[in-house]
Write a structure and sequence with these properties.
Helix 4 runs antiparallel to helix 5. The protein is 78% helix and 0% strand. The chain has a domain at 116-130 and 139-168. The longest helix is centred in the middle third of the chain and has 55 residues, at 56-110. It starts with 14 loop residues before the first helix and ends with a helix. It is mostly helical and 168 residues long. It has five helices and no strands.
Length: 168
């Protein structure tokens, strides 16, 4: 949808845009549901009408075909989402690495002294802790800042793990 990172729930896209963008996925889901219903409710059981009683060889062939179908479906359901997530993580990792390099270069040109990510995280934690109000008046902004900090820490940890894996 090519939206900027939204920090608030108010920044959600309008419903019309979401419906328009996911129209193809919706049509694909409807068509696949109809085709699979036709296959499993009509064609597959209908193929059994051509044979009166299965002998042991026919029964073994039928159950082997069923097991193969279940195995392929299980592998697809397991492997494809995992592959897509790994691909997205690697893409984001490369983007984060390029952004970090660009940020370091700009900081080096501006200042000769820069803090490491761990020092920045520690400073953010201290600032967020110190700025937390006793009353709940401005609690929603602090919760957003804390979630942002936690997300930053999680992303930083994953980046370090990926760096270690890529260096090994």
């Amino acid at each position: 949808m090519k939206l900027d990172d939204a920090e608030n729930f108010i920044d959600r896209p309008p419903l019309e845009l979401v419906i328009r963008k996911f129209r193809t996925a919706k049509l694909t889901a409807y068509i696949a549901a109809m085709l699979f219903t036709l296959l499993f409710v009509v064609i597959w059981p209908g193929s059994m009408l051509s044979i009166d009683i299965l002998d042991i060889t026919g029964f073994n062939a039928w159950t082997t075909l069923s097991r193969m179908w279940a195995f392929v479906a299980c592998a697809f359901i397991t492997i494809v989402p995992m592959y897509q997530e790994i691909k997205a993580i690697v893409k984001q990792f490369k983007q984060n690495k390029a952004d970090a390099k660009q940020k370091r270069e700009s900081q080096n040109s501006e200042n000769s002294h820069s803090m490491s990510d761990d020092e920045e995280s520690l400073e953010m934690t201290i600032n967020n802790t110190m700025s937390t109000p006793v009353s709940g008046a401005n609690n929603s902004n602090n919760i957003g800042a804390k979630h942002g900090h936690l997300f930053h820490q999680l992303r930083h940890t994953v980046e370090r793990m990926l760096n270690n894996i890529s260096q090994a």
